[in-house]
Amino acid sequence: MSLLKTSLERPTIYIDPKKCMGCRSCEIACAVEHSMSKTLFGAIFEKPTPKPRLKVVVADFFNVPLRCQHCEDAPCMKVCPTGAIKKSEEGFVILNTNKCIGCLMCVMACPFGHPKYEPEYKVVLKCDSCIERVREGREPACVEACPTKALKFGTLEEILDEIRKERAEELISGLKVPGIVYMKPVVEEKKKEERISPMDVYAAYLEVKWY
Question: What's the burial of 52, exposed, middle or buried (CB within 10 Å: 0-12/13-18/19+)?
Answer without folding.
Answer: buried
